[in-house]
Design goal:
It is built from twelve helices and eleven strands. It is globular and about 60 Å long. The protein is of the alpha+beta class and 407 residues long. β9 and β10 form a beta hairpin. It has helices at residues 17-26, 73-86, 113-117, 141-150, 167-180, 184-196, 224-232, 241-259, 263-267, 279-290, 301-307, 388-401; strands at residues 9-12, 34-40, 43-50, 67-68, 200-202, 216-217, 275-277, 351-355, 359-364, 369-375, 377-378. The longest helix has 19 residues, at 241-259.
Length: 407
């Protein structure tokens, strides 16, 4: 029986034909649309898209369509911080308070910039109430930053790590703003997207709205009651600050995701999850981190090595979650995710960031590979392992580049 394939358009360089076939197979069961781009040594070798069904009622999907990147955005925030560090304007091991004095409140005087980048800061939610911060207040950047500066950490910074789903962007972004004098969105546009010609924004310009294709969920979002029950199942008492933070973070993420479906939500800078772009720009961004792209390289090899070195492998999640720690725990460098069984990226040595629903941006310096994948259907379930849409084309990319399979 012939395997099902999705319609695919675009181009591949000679030797990369297998990636087209693998992408078509991976998209066969996807109810949405997707783009896949691959650079090798700074050269675009794969530029594909599957028009799929786009989004219910949405505009047609094509090679220049752009969409919400969710947490893939975090990698772009990290790039901004590493650029400032490479230029000698930001010391990653320095206390955050050196650049943002108000942050020293409530026991955070020793929290470092690296703690923010590696999700070790103990500030995983914007509020100390289970309902979190939602509605227009969630997009009030000044209020959110002020609240984070005053907040007492849920755990002692640097002693444990846990994903900062939304606060990451405001924490690192505020350090960038204090050092550079402009918001992280303006800095990204001026220092990264502009020089590289990327269609990548924190805050989608109105002139680009016609290219935006919305995302859609393939399963209902969990209710507040279901989230509370799940948190309780972790062994956390209802009034525990970590339990409160987990519930708040989930509520805030749901509210932000819904807001990205509106013009106001897309126009606002929401750096942890609200980046907007397409696969070709993601791939080009990561390519410029590891080598020159049309004469432009963003980071030195030493900076890349520091960014992709493990910064959480030696730490547990905060208690009592440490009792549930397992082999597929998240792994972080400085602002980037590192390979693990449920998110293998391009194998050992690679780094990048996935986003809710299945988006992915990543690079493998040793092979010169950089990849961007953007989809409209939010179907990836991280607890179930790698997104089935990734697996075939990832293997095909590695094969075309001559990267041996892991033992």
């Amino acid at each position: 029986m012939t395997a099902a394939v999705a319609p695919v358009a675009g181009t591949v360089r000679p030797g990369w034909e297998g990636v087209r076939e693998a992408f078509a197979r991976g998209q066969a069961s996807d109810p949405g649309a997707a783009q896949l781009a691959v650079h090798r040594h700074g050269r675009l070798v794969v530029d594909l898209w599957s028009p799929g069904a786009a989004a219910p009622g949405g505009p047609p999907f094509g090679p220049d369509s752009v969409g919400v990147l969710m947490s893939v955005s975090k990698g772009a925030v990290a790039v901004c911080a590493h650029l400032l560090a490479e230029r000698g304007r930001l010391e990653l091991d320095a206390p955050v308070a050196r650049y943002w004095p108000e942050f020293a409140a409530a026991g955070k005087e020793g929290t470092t910039v690296a703690d923010l980048l590696a999700h070790r800061a103990g500030l995983p939610a914007f509020a100390d109430e289970p309902a979190g911060v939602t509605g227009p207040a969630l997009f009030d950047r000044d209020a959110r930053v002020t609240a984070l500066a005053a907040m007492r950490p849920v755990w002692e910074p640097g002693t444990a790590f846990l994903y900062h789903a939304l606060t990451y962007g405001h924490l690192v972004g505020e350090v960038v703003r204090r050092v550079a004098g402009v918001s992280v969105g303006v800095f990204l546009a001026r220092e990264v997207a502009g020089p590289l010609g990327l269609d990548l924004w924190f805050g989608l310009p109105r002139r680009e709205e016609h290219r935006f294709v919305p995302q859609f969920a393939v399963r209902p979002a969990p209710t507040a009651g279901q989230i509370a029950a799940a948190v309780g199942g972790l062994g956390l008492a209802p009034g525990d600050r970590l339990a409160t933070a987990l519930r708040a973070s989930a509520a805030e993420l749901a509210a932000a995701t819904e807001a990205f479906g509106t013009r106001a939500g897309r126009a606002g800078e929401f750096p942890a999850a609200g980046g907007i772009g397409h696969a070709r720009s993601l791939s080009r961004l990561y390519a410029a981190l590891i080598g020159p792209v049309d004469g432009t390289r963003l980071l030195s090899p030493a900076t890349v090595d520091r960014a992709r070195s493990p910064h959480t492998d030696h730490l547990p999640p905060p208690a009592p979650l440490d009792r549930l720690d397992g082999p597929d725990r998240s792994r972080f460098g400085l602002g980037f995710e590192l390979p693990r069984p449920g998110e293998p990226l391009l194998g050992e040595g690679s780094f990048g960031h996935a986003g809710a629903g299945g988006r992915l941006g990543m690079a493998h310096p040793e092979s010169g590979l950089a990849v961007g994948y953007v989809c409209t259907a939010m179907s990836w379930e991280p607890s179930a392992g790698p997104d089935p849409r990734w697996t075939e084309w990832t293997a095909a990319v590695r094969e075309a580049a001559g990267i041996p399979e892991a033992a």
